[in-house]
Amino acid sequence: MVSSAEKPAFQEIRPGVKVPAKETILTPRFYTTDFDEMAEMDISVNEDELQAILEEFRADYNRHHFVRDEEFNQSWDHIDGETRRLFVEFLERSCTAEFSGFLLYKELGRRLKGKSPVLAECFNLMSRDEARHAGFLNKAMSDFNLSLDLGFLTKSRSYTFFKPKFIFYATYLSEKIGYWRYITIYRHLQKHPEDRVYPIFRFFENWCQDENRHGDFFDAIMKSQPQMLNDWKAKLWSRFFLLSVFATMFLNDIQRSDFYASIGLDAREYDIYVIKKTNETAGRVFPVMLDVDNPKFYEYLDICIENNKKLREIDASSSPKFLKPLQKLPHYLSNGVQFIKLYFMKPIDVTEMEGAVL
Ligand SMILES: [Fe+2]
Ligand SMILES: [Fe+2]
């Protein structure tokens, strides 16, 4: 056991159960959608591919994967101080994101049952995977003497409503970026085993294949609804979702560079690689990709990093409470301006290249 003096300062709902991190624009989101509209979707143009993906889900390749082995059975007290805090935060964020997928897919499986059987079963099997992922991460948190009360999280979080089309854009991207995040960490630690300071990273190789299959499922659904991909609105929305997902990850990760450093990764290089790969993958289904090789892309994002740093400094400062919103305003405005500049950067049109191997 760790003495309370050595524990990082986390608030607890009750002993060992962590108060969930405060919701902000950068924390993982919980979603809900129009279930009737989704149930009425005609998927027949791509039913064969969806059926093939369903067979893969049924095969359940990772049935025996998420079993904690003896390497977990040791004390993790040597991961202490700031590194311990960053570890717990990483596990909590990952667990919350996985659990948010579980809740959405579970609900979709339930609501589509009897109305759209192929989709209903796919969602149920994906919720099985996400439950395993979230459970495994929550168990890992308990190695650091904390855990999340997932029932409490279900009730206490606010849910963002998205029309089915936007749910597909958002979940497709979060699955694919999840795949690239996990596999990149895995490959790095394979080359540098001395940096693998905790066993969970060893599970990421098979784990990320689940996320890849989930992403392929949303790719196949969107292709069954060509109207979601082939008009000018789809181009504008794809840009919006790509940018939101990339910017959120970049701002989050740079702020937590020390966590990545603790496993031997440079957060900036890691993110640039993950963004590049996810952007290329997304080009197989979305009508546009972002021009992430344009130096302006990271120049604008770096201004947001600076703004966020200033915002945190204002929060931590001793300025009177009424003054803080005023002090923050120019930084919020600047973030808005950067986002608009990023959004209006010329994207790469991939409509012509549809089907090409990227
Ligand atoms: Fe997952
Ligand atoms: Fe997933």
Automatic annotation (TrEMBL):
Pathways per UniProt: Porphyrin-containing compound metabolism; chlorophyll biosynthesis (light-independent)
One Gene Ontology term from the biological process aspect of the record: light-independent chlorophyll biosynthetic process
Cofactor(s) the record lists: Fe cation
Enzyme class: oxidoreductase
Reaction equations catalysed: Mg-protoporphyrin IX 13-monomethyl ester + 3 NADPH + 3 O2 + 2 H(+) = 3,8-divinyl protochlorophyllide a + 3 NADP(+) + 5 H2O
Tree of life domain: Bacteria
Keyword vocabulary terms for this entry: Chlorophyll biosynthesis, Iron, Metal-binding, NADP, Oxidoreductase, Photosynthesis
EC number, as in UniProt: 1.14.13.81
UniProt-listed InterPro entries: AcsF, Ferritin-like_SF, Rr_diiron-bd_dom
Domain spans labelled Rubrerythrin diiron-binding: 89-221
GO molecular function: iron ion binding; magnesium-protoporphyrin IX monomethyl ester (oxidative) cyclase activity
Pfam family of the protein (one): Rubrerythrin
PANTHER family found in the cross-reference section: MAGNESIUM-PROTOPORPHYRIN IX MONOMETHYL ESTER [OXIDATIVE] CYCLASE, CHLOROPLASTIC (PTHR31053:SF2)
Family membership: Belongs to the AcsF family.
Function: Catalyzes the formation of the isocyclic ring in chlorophyll biosynthesis. Mediates the cyclase reaction, which results in the formation of divinylprotochlorophyllide (Pchlide) characteristic of all chlorophylls from magnesium-protoporphyrin IX 13-monomethyl ester (MgPMME).
HAMAP family reported for this sequence: AcsF
Name this protein carries in UniProt: Magnesium-protoporphyrin IX monomethyl ester [oxidative] cyclase
